[in-house]
From TrEMBL:
Top-level division of the source organism's lineage: Bacteria
InterPro entries: Poly_Biosynth_Transport, Polysacc_synth
Name of the protein: Polysaccharide biosynthesis C-terminal domain-containing protein
Subcellular location, record wording: Cell membrane
Residues annotated as signal peptide: none
Source organism: Hoeflea poritis
Keyword field: Cell membrane, Membrane, Transmembrane, Transmembrane helix
A Pfam entry, by short name: Polysacc_synt
Sequence intervals crossing the membrane: 52-71, 83-110, 131-152, 158-176, 197-218, 224-247, 259-279, 299-316, 348-369, 375-396, 408-430, 436-455
Major localisation: membrane
Membrane topology: Multi-pass membrane protein
């Protein structure tokens, strides 16, 4: 599919619109420049294509996920939908954490091993990551079930069975994240994003609809079983297809395994990813701990709408991560500084534009979830302020991770997470869901400020939308961070 996109773009670039087509000259020139940029066969062209494809997939994904959540909210009602949301978000967080950083370590190591011709290490790390994630997620799931039964008396009864169902989803969420990282490391962006961001959100409401049609209750339990079925189908299909593609790219041969070294690198990444996932989802979890499920549903609906803005950041990050890794491996610090500034530019301005549109449409979009969801409109404004602050510097945590600055990045996210959790604990009891949004906004401001300062001091790179690409030369990046 990636090749199809490339061929289409190249053909378009080779056949510019004729003057008689009615397209103004300036528009034709813009299209020629755009297709010329996308046509490039160098690493810059590959990065641009990956970002564009990721951007397109995220647009489609946002639409599918948004419609799916509206369908589930309308079908289940606010209370049951809130239970589903709380458990599903918990499953996503814990499943990702169960990888212990291996899914991101793949993105760092595979391009470097491939550039150095160390194919045996590529075979070793891809197999090790799969087995490790499956084993760790299964252990975490078993501990989770034991915890639920052990502390059942201290939990609301409506959460018990849904939490147990959520535990059974964890192994496939973890394996899916490993497959995602493996595909990204090989620049197979469609293979990386399609299962998680297109197939799974599409299948969940489809399976839910079939279940309700067959007579099952339209409640959180049925929705979580639908999520379980969708997750297993997408992950196992991705495993099969990706395994076939890997065998074609890297012929069968010996595997070189450096488990101890990979774990030493992956664990700081695990802390970064863990703090990041907790940071981005702690508000939903904390609302679920302090407020009833109907408030969780309202907050999540507002946050889900604002997530439409996040795919800009995601698209740039997906395209830039392998590029950052390759430039660090080549010790090309000047180009690294230029690419970092470009990443910030292409993150901020689309975020502002799309965010403004989403806010204007906010009341209408919230009403689609149900008549009681409009209370979440102030939440959207508060969250957007934080998103805009973070977009000022672009994917700064990705740059630090790929530059070997995992430890300091983990410390940044620990500090930001503390700000977020403290803010939620203090503000939710007073201001409800608006308090949760304010705590998240404060954390995003702190995150942006800390990332900018560390990137400037550690790498001598001015990674912000205010910098001029190429203005900073960059200092040599490396693993010596503390």
């Amino acid at each position: 599919m990636v090749n199809t996109v490339r061929i289409t773009v190249e053909n378009a670039a080779e056949k510019p619109l004729a003057p008689e087509s009615g397209v103004p000259h300036k528009a034709t020139g813009f299209l020629d420049r755009f297709f010329g940029l996308m046509k490039g066969q160098d690493e810059h062209g590959e990065t641009r294509r990956m970002s564009l494809i990721a951007f397109f997939i995220r647009i489609v994904s946002a639409g599918i996920a948004f419609l799916a959540q509206i369908f589930l909210a309308r079908l289940m009602g606010q209370f049951e939908y809130g239970i589903f949301v709380f458990v599903w978000v918990m499953a996503i967080i814990v499943g990702n954490l169960a990888c212990f950083g291996f899914h991101t370590a793949l993105i760092r190591f595979v391009p470097q091993y491939r550039a150095q011709g160390e194919i045996a290490k590529i075979r070793g790390i891809t197999v090790t990551a799969r087995l490790f994630s499956l084993a760790s997620a299964t252990i975490v799931a078993a501990l989770g079930v034991a915890f639920v039964y052990g502390f059942a008396d201290a939990m609301p009864s409506y959460y018990l069975v849904p939490l147990v169902i959520g535990a059974f989803i964890l192994p496939m969420i973890a394996l899916g994240d490993i497959m995602d990282g493996t595909a990204r490391a090989n620049s197979w962006i469609v293979q990386a994003l399609t299962p998680t961001y297109l197939a799974r959100p599409f299948l969940i409401p489809v399976v839910m609809f079939v279940a309700v049609y067959l007579g099952y209750a339209a409640d959180a339990r049925t929705a979580l079983i639908a999520a379980l079925i969708a997750t297993y189908l997408t992950t196992l299909t991705q495993l099969t297809i990706l395994g076939w593609r890997l065998r074609r790219r890297f012929e069968a041969g010996p595997k070189e395994i450096e488990l101890g070294y990979w774990i030493r690198i992956a664990l700081p990444i695990f802390l970064i990813e863990g703090f990041y996932y907790l940071l981005t989802n702690a508000d939903v979890v904390m609302v679920g701990m302090f407020l009833p499920p109907d408030q969780v549903a309202t907050y999540y609906a507002a946050a889900k709408i604002m997530a439409l803005v996040h795919f800009v950041f995601f698209a740039v990050k997906a395209g830039m991560a392998p590029r950052f890794s390759a430039l660090v491996a080549d010790d090309n610090t000047g180009e690294l500084a230029r690419i970092a500034a470009t990443a910030a530019y292409w993150t901020f301005w689309p975020t502002i534009a799309i965010g403004g549109i989403v806010l204007v449409l906010g009341p209408f979009l919230l009403s689609l979830f149900g008549p009681d969801f409009q209370a979440g409109y102030p939440v959207m404004f508060i969250l957007f302020a934080g998103v805009a602050a973070k977009a000022l510097i672009g994917p700064g945590e990705t740059l630090l991770t790929m530059a070997g600055q995992q430890k300091v990045c983990a410390l940044i996210y620990l500090a930001v997470l503390v700000v977020n959790l403290a803010g939620n604990i203090l503000l939710i009891p007073i201001f409800g869901i608006n308090g949760a949004a304010t705590a998240t906004m404060m954390a995003m401001f702190a995150e942006a400020a800390l990332l900018y300062a560390i990137i400037r001091t550690r790498l001598d790179i001015n990674m912000s939308v205010l910098s001029r690409p190429g203005a900073a030369t960059g200092r040599k990046a490396g693993p010596n961070v503390l």
